[in-house]
Design brief:
The complex is a heterotrimer of chains A (275), B (72) and C (375). Chain A has 275 residues and is α/β, with parallel strands linked by helices. Chain A has 12 helices and 8 strands. In chain A, α2 (23-38) crosses α8 (177-189). Chain B has helices at 20-24, 51-55, and strands at residues 6-10, 30-32, 38-40, 61-65. The N and C termini of chain B lie close together (10 Å). Classes of the chains: A alpha/beta (275), B alpha+beta (72), C alpha/beta (375). β2 (64-67) of chain A pairs parallel with β9 (225-227) of chain C, so a sheet runs across the interface. The complex binds thiamine diphosphate, iron/sulfur cluster (3 copies) and magnesium ion.
Chain lengths: 275, 72, 375
């Protein structure tokens, strides 16, 4: 990592608690690379996380950090951003965090389009609580709460966010670390709510139960199943079976950013006051 | 211009022996020791692609370009 | 000041909060608190503040905590069902020591209950509603004038002690409109949390002598960590038993250290009374009226009214109760505050309950009748 991590991580908190080979560390690396590229002042960055293995990320990064309650990171972040718009606000959530318990907050954050960037660590499992299935676990997988295989259909997080009105939606993986940094940079630069879903791996609570022998094998799976969005457009549908697109999936500049709109409220209120 | 050379180091004290660097270094620079921790075995093969740095979840690997010396 | 206004209790809360410097509100509409959200929506943008209608009460609590992290004074308002949903994040604010104010306009009953009827059913929930031990200050005004002043005080206490403060209103108090004449003592001052001392190393959860660590607003150059996990003085998680014990005792003990500043109790003809009524909120209006008419008839009755209901003013109750013939605790619930009164007097004076749970206010008449029975 060169020395970048020494600039952005709280080195006295290292090594982190994540298991050997866990994707969370890779995502944290890709994120601080993005911050370095963006050139943001550390004092001006607020990092907000929920509860889960992924949520622990805020403890390791040297910004204004807050580890909130399970599923509610976006609500806290909304308050921070609205009260101090100058801050660059980043939100980190697990898949359970973001689309199970926090699903309601997620869709409303997408709808409002407040200028923040959310990174969702989609490891398709509840890592922290020991491997229960999540809303993104694929069918017929093993989980501690699905000893006979999962039956629930799974969410496509990126599509869900597009449907809910997010104005920048991208999907990366922990394998494509460089791409992930690019996507985070673009998301942060986008004026509005941006979502980066990261397909990542939990070797301990997902991999071991589902025939992945090593973290490397799980990364290999990402490499083989992630198809660049641009390329996917030209591919026959059957070739995309079981695969997923990566890269920038959606961007719109038509919907105004929330605080810009709120500026109009303040203006109208002041005009009324004068009268 | 000669071939660029790189110094690859692994901080053994924090390596969690996950095997990712070993599996993904395109030049097979790494092997493992008795604890399955990563060892830089063939540094001269390194092309400086930094894949190992980016994929190590524990920030243990550093790849630094070696300054060319006059007779290098 | 001496300025007269026609104000509802709910409007008065808003005015008091604004006077104390509140510039952020996040909430979700619920009867009988909705007028509070409506008023903030109108007033905050005029003052450069933010009004936010969130997707639910959980998010509303999260948003005001977030806003408060930046140093902005923040409030939410709700009623029963929403208050229940807020409990997890109220616990968060308590352990992470983020100032914030929650106005709970009580409605009757569990679940959806009787949305347009008053009650005092959340007396215990306001104190104990979150899991784990957590500190909280709860204030219960009984007039619109007091709702103004006490909401302002709630904001200031929450800033001073880095603690969530709940303003316990009820449907009657929220909706009644009163002519309020503000006097100088109603003036709400703006008090803000203390910040880090320049030149001194900043410990976000320092075990200070006064029990209240300094607060660094996000974006002011102090990069530190806030978490709902039990943390040490640096703010990072710990499970070291000594550190856990230190943090939990400081966080839960700090209000005890400042009881004198936090407590506010009204005594009405209590000294020479034979019968003492202990009441809060709108029930205390009836009690006050009963005392007035009984005194006119020469009957020795008085009232003690906790304005700060939590921490419960045990000493005030105990002192006022000494030598009395009986105590009456009228409540619009099945008996919640009465347990605290009994604990305070510890069997030295008989304590009588007067409960109404039909969605109607206990009348002065009912209180009078019981007083006369006991005299
Ligand atoms: C309200 C609440 N319910 C349940 C939990 C227990 N819990 C902690 S983390 C977690 C799920 C974590 O899964 P995910 O969000 O996918 O994050 P990961 O650990 O996989 O990164 C759960 C259910 C909690 N902390 N709070
Ligand atoms: S349980 Fe899974 S997600 Fe959590 S740290 Fe371990 S590998 Fe990572
Ligand atoms: S930089 Fe590339 S070639 Fe060099 S050790 Fe790392 S992965 Fe191998
Ligand atoms: S990737 Fe990092 S932690 Fe894993 S074996 Fe290599 S050096 Fe060790
Ligand atoms: Mg997960």
């Amino acid at each position: 990592m060169g020395k970048i991590h020494e600039k952005y991580l709280r080195m006295d908190k290292m090594p982190h608690i994540w298991c050997a080979g866990c994707g969370n560390g890779i995502i944290m690396g890709a994120f601080i690379n993005a911050i370095d590229r963006l050139g943001y002042d550390k004092d001006e960055v607020a990092a907000v996380s929920g509860i889960g293995c992924s949520g622990r990320i805020t403890g390791y990064m040297d910004f204004n950090t807050i580890h909130t309650t399970h599923g509610r990171a976006l609500a806290f972040a909304t308050g921070i951003k609205l009260a101090k718009p100058r801050l660059k606000v980043f939100v980190f959530m697990g898949d359970g965090d973001a689309v199970a318990i926090g699903g309601n907050h997620l869709i409303h954050a997408c709808r409002r389009n407040l200028d923040m960037t959310a990174v969702i660590f989609n490891n398709h499992i509840y890592g922290m609580t020991g491997g229960q299935f999540s809303p993104t676990t694929f069918k017929n997988k093993n989980a501690t709460t699905a000893p006979y295989g999962t039956t629930d259909p799974d969410f496509d997080i990126a599509q869900l966010c597009i449907g809910a009105g997010a104005t920048y939606v991208a999907r990366g993986t922990s394998y494509h670390a460089r791409l992930l940094t690019d996507l985070i940079v673009k998301g942060a630069e986008h004026p509005g709510f941006s979502i980066i879903e990261v397909i990542t791996h939990c070797p301990v609570n997902f991999g071991r139960r589902n025939n992945f022998e090593s973290p490397a094998q799980m990364l290999l799976w990402q490499k083989e199943h992630g198809v660049a969005a641009r390329k996917a457009k030209t591919m026959p549908l059957e070739d995309m079976e079981g695969k997923f697109t990566i890269g920038e999936l959606y961007r719109s500049t038509e919907i105004p950013e929330y605080l810009e709109e709120y500026g109009r409220v303040i203006q109208a209120a002041n005009e009324e006051k004068k009268q | 211009m000669g071939k660029k050379r790189f110094n690859v180091t692994v901080d053994r004290t924090i390596c969690k022996a996950c095997g990712i660097c070993v599996a993904f270094c395109p030049m097979s620079v790494f092997t493992t020791d008795h604890d399955d921790k990563a060892v830089v075995s063939v540094p001269e093969r390194c092309t400086g692609c930094r894949q190992c740095e980016l994929l190590c979840p524990d920030f243990c690997i550093t790849v630094v370009q070696v300054e060319e010396t006059a007779d290098g | 000041m001496a300025e007269a206004k026609l104000l509802s209790g709910n409007d008065a809360c808003v005015q008091g909060a604004l006077a104390a410097g509140v510039r952020f509100f996040a909430g979700y509409p619920i009867t009988p608190s909705t007028e509070i959200a409506n008023a903030f929506a109108r007033e905050l943008p005029r003052r450069g503040g933010i009004f936010m209608q969130m997707e639910d009460e959980i998010a509303s609590m999260g948003a005001i905590i977030g806003a408060s992290c930046t140093g902005t004074k923040a409030v939410t308002a709700t009623s029963g069902p929403g208050f229940s949903l807020m409990q997890e994040n109220i616990g968060y604010a308590a352990i992470a020591e983020i100032p914030c104010v929650i106005i709970n306009v009580m409605r009757y009953g569990p679940s959806t209950g009787l949305p347009t009827s008053p009650s005092q059913g959340d007396f215990m929930q306001s104190r104990w509603g979150s899991h784990g031990d957590r500190p909280v200050i709860v204030i219960a005004p009984y007039t619109a004038r007091e709702a103004y002043r006490e909401t302002g005080r709630a904001v200031n206490l929450s800033e001073t002690y880095r603690v969530p403060v709940i303003v316990l209103m009820d449907e009657i108090l929220g909706h009644l409109r009163e002519r309020v004449e503000f006097r100088d003592e109603d003036l709400v001052q703006e008090i803000s949390r203390k910040g880090p001392e320049p030149g001194r190393p900043f410990l976000p959860y320092e075990n200070t002598e006064d029990g209240v660590p300094p607060f660094a607003d996000f974006g002011t150059g102090y990069r530190y960590h806030i978490t709902g996990l039990i943390h040490d003085e640096t703010g990072f998680p710990t499970n070291n038993p000594v550190e856990v014990d230190t943090t939990m005792r400081r966080v839960n003990g700090k209000l005890e250290l400042h009881r004198q500043d936090i407590e506010r109790t009204q005594f009405v003809d209590a000294d020479d009374a034979e019968i003492l009524i202990v009441a809060f909120g709108s029930v205390a209006r009836s009690a006050h009226e009963a005392v007035r008419t009984l005194r006119n008839e020469g009957k020795a009755v008085g009232m003690v009214r906790p304005i700060t209901v939590w921490p419960f003013p045990e000493d005030d109750i105990r002192t006022a109760a000494a030598g009395k013939k009986a105590i009456i605790v009228p409540e619009m619930n099945l008996g919640q505050m009465i347990g605290e009164v009994e604990r305070a007097v510890a069997g030295t004076v008989p304590v009588h309950a007067l409960n109404r749970i039909d969605g109607l206010l206990i009348t002065p008449h009912e209180i009078r009748d019981l007083v006369e029975d006991l005299l």
